[in-house]
Amino acid sequence: MKKILTVLLCCLSAAAVAQNKGTVSVVKDPLIDSLIAKRIELNRRQTTAPVAVSTGKPGTTIVSQMGYRVQIFYGSDRREVFNEQSKFNNSYPELNTYITYKQPNYYLRVGDFRTRLEAQRFMNELRGIFPTLFIFREKINAPNLNYNND
Fold first, then answer.
1. What DSSP designation does 125 have?
2. What span, in angstroms and rounded, lies between the C-alpha atoms of 15 and 6?
3. How far is residue 13's CA from residue 45's CA, in Å, rounded to a whole number?
4. Is residue 92 within 8 Å of 110, Cβ to Cβ?
5. Are strands 105-113 and 51-54 parallel, antiparallel or unpaired?
6. Tell me: the pLDDT tens digits for 15-74?
7. d(CA 50, CA 53)
8. In 3-state terms, what secondary structure has residue 135?
9. DSSP codes joined into one string, 35-90
């Protein structure tokens, strides 16, 4: 009788300790899903095609893509950077200039070159005028291509 009672007691205690299968419910803000979807879409756009930005004027769409720029000056004095920019603009008015500030220096980069070879040729042209020249790969505003039907 003691053996039967012991076995019965063990079975009842095992049943009481056994866990039932449950469900997990995740509570989150629905904006998280929309942010993830937007991020995935942006990543697809960046890898598949250049991004076009309209400036509001007809025929002035800016297409950004990866390319090269030549850094012609860097320094911590703001006035000196703007002086170098005006010096460059007087010599090469057709090229765009870009000033970037990353603490504690200002960086003056010029041009929107599609290939490194174009940037290297331009850098060789500037060697005598500007002492410290570097080529950087970054997102550029792609220049308009002029096609002549000759």
1. H
2. 14
3. 60
4. yes
5. unpaired
6. 555 566 778 888 888 888 888 888 888 877 765 555 555 444 555 555 678 899 999 998
7. 10
8. strand
9. HHHHHHHHHHHHHHS-EEEE-SSTT-EEEEEEEEEEEEEEES-HHHHHHHHHHHHH
